[in-house]
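Work Package 4 report. The design task specified in the project plan requires that, given a folded chain encoded as structure tokens, an amino acid be chosen for each position. We show below one input record used in the internal validation round.
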């Protein structure tokens, strides 16, 4: 399949990303810096004019400007699945993603289950889509699963399968005093609009003695494998993490890493426990940020 055919299929969607994305980040979501964004790419893998910047102080990658929360809601309900279908040249929708999620869930269960200190009775899957991953783990553990997701159509599938569902974005969700023994954030963190705030809520939702699992697309690994940052940049990912930035975010939000893995497709997964809130090693983080930018350019 040639690039021209892919470009024509994407153009046929008529989505004007450049005309919509206008929200500029006032401060880096990790370190709070306001002046250190380094522009390193101006197109994403679909060809959209997406400006990718890296914070020179901490190395967090992000799109700026980007879509607002309302624009992202429209993007996910109308554009996202047709766009990835056009890009990959095959149908990708709520039905087909369940097949991929089953494979993902099997791999996650094999990795995660031996690492749990005790059998969780409750599982929360944040951004859990149709509930495939939550149900596979819940079945292995004989636990009760809850799925939090913004898509009503995908939640309906989870509800039919007997899971508790909560509609909405995690950024808007107030768990109150409620927590879960196992909290999952699978293939979701790069899609969030507030990574640091969400991880802080995730920690509150993780029961004392419980575990959280979070995975990132490690953009540094992807860059080294493909040689081009444009392959990693896509408008559905407002944020781009590396191992150093992920570790810094866990430290800032009170998580301790218990175990980690990297999969063939460049997803780096972390098993986390509640720990003390701390400060990352800022000079080391700045040095790894400079190295990351140098690798891109
Ligand atoms: Zn920063």
């Amino acid at each position: 399949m040639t690039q021209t055919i892919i470009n024509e299929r994407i153009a046929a969607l008529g989505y004007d990303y450049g005309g919509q994305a206008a929200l500029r980040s006032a401060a880096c979501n990790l370190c709070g810096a306001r002046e250190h964004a380094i522009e390193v790419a101006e197109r994403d893998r679909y060809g959209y004019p997406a400006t990718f910047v890296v914070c020179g102080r901490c190395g967090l990658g992000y799109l700026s400007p980007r879509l607002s929360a309302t624009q992202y809601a429209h993007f996910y309900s109308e554009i996202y699945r047709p766009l990835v279908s056009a890009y990959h040249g095959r149908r990708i929708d709520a039905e087909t993603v369940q097949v991929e999620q089953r494979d993902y869930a099997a791999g996650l269960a094999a990795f995660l289950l031996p690492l749990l200190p005790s059998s969780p009775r409750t599982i929360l899957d944040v951004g859990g889509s149709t509930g495939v991953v939550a149900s596979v783990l819940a079945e292995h553990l004989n636990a009760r699963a809850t799925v939090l997701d913004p898509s009503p159509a995908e939640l309906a599938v989870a509800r039919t399968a007997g899971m508790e569902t909560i509609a909405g974005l995690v950024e808007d969700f107030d768990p109150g005093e409620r927590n879960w023994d196992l909290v999952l954030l699978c293939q979701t963190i790069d899609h969030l609009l507030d990574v640091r705030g969400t991880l802080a809520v995730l920690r509150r939702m993780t029961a004392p003695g419980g575990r959280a699992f979070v995975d990132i697309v490690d953009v540094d690994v992807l860059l080294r494998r493909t040689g081009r940052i444009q392959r990693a940049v896509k408008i559905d990912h407002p944020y781009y993490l590396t191992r150093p930035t992920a570790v810094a975010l866990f430290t800032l939000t009170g998580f301790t890493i218990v175990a980690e893995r990297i999969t063939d497709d460049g997803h780096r997964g972390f098993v986390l426990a509640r720990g003390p809130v701390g400060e990352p090693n800022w000079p080391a983080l700045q040095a790894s940020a400079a190295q990351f930018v140098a690798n891109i350019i």
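The chain has ten helices and eleven strands. Validation will be extended to a larger panel in the next phase.
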